[in-house]
Design goal:
The complex is a heterodimer of chains A (307) and B (96). Chain A is an alpha/beta fold and 307 residues long. Chain A has 9 helices and 8 strands. In chain A, helix 2 crosses helix 9, helix 3 crosses helix 9 and helix 6 packs antiparallel against helix 9. Classes of the chains: A alpha/beta (307), B alpha+beta (96). Chains A and B meet through loops of A and strand 2 and helix 3 of B.
Amino acid sequence: SSKSFNFGAYHSLETIYSWMDGLVAAHPNLVTKEQIGTSYEGRPMYVLKFSTGGDKRPAIWVDSGIHSREWVSQATGVWTANQIASDYGTDASLTSLLKTMDIYLLILANPDGYVHSHTSDRMWRKTRSKNPGSMCRGVDPNRNWDAGFGGPGASTNPCSDSYHGPSPHSEIEVKNVVNLVKNHGNFKSFISIHAYSQLLMYPYGYTCTDALHAAELDSVGRSAVQKLSSLHGTTYKVGSICKIIYQASGGSIDWTYNLGIKYSFAFELRDTGRYGFILPANQIIPTASETWLALKDIMEYVRDHSY
Amino acid sequence: EKVFIGDQVIRVNVESEEQILLLRALEQDTYWDLDFWLHPVNTEVPVDIRVPSSSLYAVKDYLRAHNIQFSVMISNLQELLDEEKAEMEENNMSER
């Protein structure tokens, strides 16, 4: 149960999946666990849906840990799920949001990679699919979306950590999300959580051309980061993927933005580089807590700016 | 299970476009089996590279030869991973 669960620790996939069941059981009128498909190696992929009723209401999507080695992302996803459940009914703003909107949270966006990073290679980033004709496995699931697919900032080499894969949405883990988002048809915001380097980004990554709503997204991002920084003073940069890091094609938020989901963002959580992907577990809760302030700020903006 | 004994993560605070090009050349060289945690982009963003122990001398020599300043961010990656693993096992036991 959430009372005995240690949110300040890293956990295996089985433990997280089991904990999800406990969360659903504790909040039966708010949280459901829905299977959106299976991974390449046959693991179920579960999304937590926070809803107070109705079908296909306007919704906000949050996923964490599409790059498996970025462990603080998945840990933040777990903490966030618990926060949403426990704040509902006590936090007026979140409660009002959930009266009209749903939140979907995919804590383990790359289950095979996550397990592989726990059991075989802590530094594993990609999926685990086999690449015909190559000794190397896996596709970078954040180069696999149908948005400038195969363009700059993605590799054609299956051995590269940024290999884009044979075709757009070739990775079942990506396809599962694509199917859900398309079938739902009413997502207003799509937020993807990565680590590290402390950035809040918006489209585009595959081109350095400004998105149509760049100014608004920049403003929303800066407001969110201001909230985030207010807790522990963590400094974030805000900007488009291309301008703030580097050109990277085939990314998820570019695809969602082009699909019409205006409020598409990607986080890079702590740290600035002292530990990188090996962020100590004692930083999970501070990281998740500050991220929540930013997430909530974005969600409130989305709620108040329907389109 | 893959181990990272003696692997280091080094940080380069890039000072010029020339250094970015040199680091990109390093990134494309597969011989040293480098894992770029943060890629060479511009002078405002640092570059973090996990360097296998077998390539440490060569990579550091390369950087020094090109007058690229660097610092060691993680001196032995496996030590940190061992600590992480021990902590996870301990947490797992205490939950039970």
